[in-house]
What we know:
alpha+beta
Amino acid sequence: MKALAALLLFLAVEQPPDPPVEQTKKNIKVLKGLPTSQLLPMMAFISNSLGVNCDHCHTKAYESDEKEAKGVARTMIVMVRDINERHFGGEIAITCTTCHRGSIRPRTTPRIADAFFNQPPAPPRQQPALPPVAAIIEKYLKAAKPPGDAHGTVTRVDGASAPFTLHNGEVKTELEYPPEANDALQPVALNRDRLAAVGIETVRGHEAWVLEQRHDRLYIDTQSGALLRWHRETQIDLGELPDETDYDGNTITWSRGDERLVFKLAE
Ligand code: HEC
Ligand code: HEC
């Protein structure tokens, strides 16, 4: 019993509090029970699916129901859950993206451009020979700069910017943005046993090996071994939310459906 109490205390200390969103926000009707930390990722997923920014559904007071689209979004969230529950055994088979694909008005009429005779020829299935994963990782680790302290300027997609510092892995800045963006300044965690080399692609004009780990992808420069891009997908209540970090010399860019941040590192 004492051990359990100690464990609970330990958990209580270790885990930052993450109360259900209806306790921390003002007007939650369909997302009750969702941990507060999940609200913004969910809003990012919805915005990305419809190709809109927050102001499509919100006024400055986020709790306001003034905009009609917000009410429609509520019924859509309920509908999507219902379809998945009833037709796909509770799996997330249908998401906002399935219908919307980056537009507020899903297409209902098929396009002649999509007819079978207009399909692009299937790419050759034969993949170029890829080196073993271990060799790619070795090359990457050799090229990787040891993570250390840094400072510079961070700029949001709306143009607002501020200085930032990275000290002992902790990012500090006055600028407000989704906290997940700070992962862009951390070393990428590699799980050597689960990484697979899946192909070669071009990133910003550089040929890159693509390493895959579940839905995450690392793009490694075949010439220099440098990490060019990290594509990540995080499971949330509505589906997989993608974000992407591009590494280009002293410029690190983080993109997600709701925000893009450019970190410029000072020399
Ligand atoms: C397509 C419509 C839509 C878009 C776009 C959208 N939201 Fe929402 N948002 C909602 C809905 C619907 C709710 C209420 C959910 C509920 O009732 O459970 C909500 C609730 C919220 C709340 C809680 C407000 C409160 O106090 O009750 C916040 C904060 C929020 N959204 C932020 C954002 C941000 C930031 C963005 C842009 C990244 C965004 N939303 C984009 C539909 C949207
Ligand atoms: C099964 C297909 C389907 C799915 C899945 C779907 N929608 Fe929709 N959505 C539609 C259709 C169709 C319309 C257009 C309705 C109309 O024009 O009257 C629409 C319209 C909307 C609108 C109103 C657009 C506007 O003009 O502002 C919002 C907001 C919306 N959807 C949000 C969502 C969200 C959020 C999700 C995921 C939780 C979602 N939808 C999932 C089919 C879908």
